[in-house]
Amino acid sequence: MTIEEESIRKWCEEASEHEFHLDKSIYISDLLMGRDTPFGIKANGDIFILLNEYLCDSPFKISDLIELTSAKSFVSESEGTSLYGCGLSISTNSIEEQVRTLALINNILERDSNKSDLYSFFELIRKAAQRSKNFYAPSLFAELCVLKALQPQIPNIISCWKSSGQSIVDICSSSNSPEIEVKSTTNLDSRVHTLSLHQVRHFLEHRECLVASVQVHEDSEAGTSCKILCEELLKHEQQIQCSVGIKILTSYLLSYSSKPGFCQMSFNEVLTKCSIIYIRPDFSGLSIQTPPPWLNSASFEIDFSLMPSVTNVSL
């Protein structure tokens, strides 16, 4: 059964006014998601989806963001009856988040590949939650600005974004673009960035790989937050119906919404985007192709404005 996003929004607005009367019950919608899946809302505002057992491998919990239970009975607030299945609870901070997340999961459930797509979404949430522990707003804002700047000529750029924070490069290659590692600084007078030993070796082995050097301009009065940029990028992904990009951005909006820096810290988007330069560095002069076995890791602080073997690239 297909339900429109506007129907989901109307129900979420109505549910926000509901007064709970039964202990640990769930206010179940009279609408059904894909594959006749019931959904509702819990007293704490978390959305609740009652998944069929065939979609659930094993129970899990990701921080305070998302929890999947084993199959059991749940009490419906709206009917006072018992429902049986695997309960998926997702923490949300607003009606907008509820609508966005329910609409995405509804679309996933309607697909033939619904189970694999659902678990890939869970994995993206796990990665985003893991990265959020070391959240630094200027760094994420720089990545988002590069993605937005490249979106017009590379519509699927979000799908290439490696959002785990543990990848060697931030943006993997596609038919329209090479690999890109985004490096940022809030120092507007220099382009000093740090690369790990593994990254430098990667640049030696992949000569087409680029560094996007970004100078992040803070603007506390009239700037743009990371949250707003994510929402703008998400609207574009929804227009082109890029499911991978939608899942990545939705996972970020869920995982980071409790971070004050994500929602409140603001930057000048125009000046930050204008500062982006794409560099193809040449590290062939460094003898680190085969480092000694006792060297497990190292980092290099590089001033790209002074580095002699640098080629600026236009994208």
Task: Report on the architecture of this protein.
The chain has nine helices and 14 strands. It is α+β, with helices and mostly antiparallel strands. It folds into two domains: 5-110, no CATH class; 136-226 and 265-313, no CATH class. The strands form four sheets. Strands 1-2-3-6-5-4 form a six-stranded antiparallel beta sheet, with helices on one face. A four-stranded mixed beta sheet has the order 7-9-12-14. Strands 8-13 form a two-stranded antiparallel ribbon. The relative contact order is 0.12.
Give descriptors for this structure:
single chain, 34% helix, four-stranded mixed sheet, elongated, 2 domains, 315 residues, alpha+beta, six-stranded antiparallel sheet, 9 helices
